[in-house]
Write a structure and sequence with these properties.
Strands 1, 2, 3, 4, 5, 6, 7, 8, 9, 10, 11, 12 and 13 form a 13-stranded mixed beta sheet that branches. The chain folds into two domains: 48-203 and 300-313, Rossmann fold (3-Layer(aba) Sandwich); 205-298. The longest helix is centred in the N-terminal third of the chain and has 15 residues, at 20-34. Strand 12 (273-276), helix 8 (277-280) and strand 13 form a beta-alpha-beta unit. The termini are far apart. The protein is α/β, with parallel strands linked by helices. 28% of the residues lie in helices and 23% in strands.
Length: 320
């Protein structure tokens, strides 16, 4: 699987030519999305914020959702998050708790529930999930992904794009990384860009605390500076995590896995391991004392939050 992912990345982002069979499949895919019905579902009584991307693979979407949820809580809203729960077993509706299993909920929804301590509902039908959260008292809904989910009416759309990768070769799946042709959205955020510009708001991922998977001990990432550790990442762009560790002065041995990889004991190397929070929710520590998760925080500009607040306030009053 990793070999296939590497081959596709070479085609999508490194200039390797797309084979004719992928280009034919891309034309079939283009015809299919052209026939999609427009969003016609009735609007829900609370604002719906969709955070997603036009490309396949990781762009830093989950840290942005966490940052937005924290901001919404601080400004008086009662936020809830809906997600399809990619990579989980089953597709039916599930409410995510802090002690849920990633196989049941998906890794990203579980991470959001643990970090934010807010209602998270997983369902293949995001509209049904949003309706459930509205009934439980949420005053704003954030959709984890869903720019392409036609049944969910939305108040604001936020696109996250990897500044280094962009739209790759600009082709639709599977010849390129595009899920759909890029279109107008309310906010565009570029992960890795600094500062804001006329096209997009900049965003940086900054390392947070490190947490031991067994003892729950919390340490600063700088505590590992100068040491040699294994770095494990099963995310869309593992190099971004590896580069962050190197910039913190840590010597790493890289272990890259496909996005949403289901980890088994054999995947864990011997010796100290630093991994992403998204991976940590799927790892069974099995008594090992040398496994650490590394939190990352999305840092967005004051200008973004000011404009976001203005647009959201026009959609609904959290105290109404």
């Amino acid at each position: 699987m990793r070999g296939l992912e590497s081959r596709l990345n070479a085609i999508w982002y490194a200039g390797a030519p797309a084979p004719w069979v992928l280009r034919v499949l891309a034309k079939i895919y283009a015809a299919a999305i052209a026939w999609r019905s427009p969003v016609t579902a009735q609007a829900l009584p609370v604002p719906i914020i969709v955070v997603g991307n036009f490309t396949a693979g990781g762009t830093g979407k989950t840290p942005v959702i966490i940052a937005l949820v924290d901001y919404l809580k601080a400004t008086g809203y009662t936020p809830g998050v809906v997600s399809r729960g990619y990579g989980r077993n089953g597709s039916g509706p599930v409410s995510v708790a802090k002690d849920s299993q990633a196989l049941v909920t998906g890794d990203e929804p579980l991470l959001i529930a643990r970090r934010c301590e807010i209602p998270v509902r997983v369902d293949a039908d995001r509209r049904r999930a949003a309706e459930f959260l509205v009934r439980t008292g949420c005053s704003v809904i954030v959709s984890d992904d869903g720019l392409q989910h036609q049944r969910l009416q939305r108040s604001l759309e936020i696109e996250i794009i990897d500044d280094a990768r962009g739209y790759g070769n600009g082709l639709l799946l599977p010849a390129g990384p595009l899920r759909e042709w890029p279109r107008k959205v309310d906010f565009r955020i570029r992960n890795g860009q600094d500062p804001d510009d006329a096209d997009a708001y900049g965003m940086q991922l900054k390392p947070g605390f490190c947490r031991n998977l067994i003892s729950d001990e919390v340490r600063a990432l700088s505590d590992f500076s100068g040491s040699r550790v294994h770095a494990l990442a099963g995310i869309g762009n593992p190099n971004r995590f590896f580069d962050m560790l190197r910039q913190s002065g840590i010597q790493i041995i890289e272990h890259a896995f496909p996005d949403h990889h289901r980890f088994v004991a054999a995947d864990l190397p011997e010796g100290p391991v630093l991994m992403t929070e998204k991976d940590a929710v799927k790892v069974e520590a099995a008594g090992r004392q040398d496994l650490w998760s590394v939190a990352v925080d999305a840092v967005l500009s004051a200008a973004f939050y000011a404009q976001f607040n203005r647009r959201l306030s026009a959609e609904g009053d959290p105290h109404a």
